[in-house]
Here is the input.
Amino acid sequence: MEQIVRNVDNYRSSILLIYTGGTIGMRPDEKTGALVPFDFSGIYDEFPSLRRLNVDIDVHTMPKLIDSSNVKPSDWCAIAEVIRDNYERYDGFVILHGTDTMSYTASALSFMLENLAKPVIFTGSQIPIGVLRTDGRENLITAIEVAAARVDGRPVVPEVALLFHSRLCRGNRTRKSSAEELDAFSSPNYPPLAEVGVKITYNTAAIAHVEPSNEPLRIATMLSEGVAIIKLFPGISEHTLRAILSVEGLRGVVLETYGAGNAPTSGWFLQLMRETIQRGVLVLNVTQCDNGSVEMHLYETGQRLHSAGVVSAYDMTSEAAITKLMYVLGQNLPWEQSVELIQRPLRGEFTL
Ligand code: ASP
Here is the structure.
């Protein structure tokens, strides 16, 4: 049964807004009309209505504002460091990010922030904040409200989440699913953590339950970049696949398969998978379908993959799977331990 929290504590929260770039931070230049970055340090002058929230907001602008298509793991580390350095001082964090790769960053941060017990809420917009019809204003205000929400002295959403349009979703369950619609993100295999309407209605049964602990926040910044995503298609050749899989330094692959995790049963394909895995490359099976889970035991085409040593990613998105691989392989653990970590839900990123 879902439990819905409608009322939150009357407590004055302090929120750190971390601005990384993307459309949300753009406004048309008065003279040239070209889009230029907005200065969020003047946020109260621009949106005086924010003063009506029971929240103190500070702004941290990343040194180099980027279009999120340029995001690299080093940018994830820089954001994680800002959160770590300010963790004790604030009740929650809102990260303004370009929408194109926001689900990758939210997934990566969900793994990198170990012992997280405070809200880290990502948001962005499809229309620049300086444009009259922007969706950025609502997204920004709601993200701040969510990051600030507390009940019985505890944050309502103590995890990495993504707020967009009318939904708050677990960050590592999201993907950008529309290049045009204002409702641009989906969470194909996990229910929203909150629905945003006249009120913000939290689905507390779906939100991570974090027990109070004295464990300090730790950030994992060793991420392996020896990873790749390979999407199968009918006709993929041995030559192409072999070339990709023999790249030097490759340590992990997200294999996007058909349906419930199925792939060709041709001898060369299975042999190549076996050889790759025997070389110590971790191959993770993610479905190409928009929703649903990998179930390798259902068909012979999946069973063969399983016997070759391919590991199921269940209902993980490719965004979560590739960032989890980077995180797990970055720890340089023995093979069995890496496989064990990959197959264990660490931050609610898949359902068994
Ligand atoms: N290209 C932009 C970005 O991802 C798009 C956006 O923010 O919506 O940074």
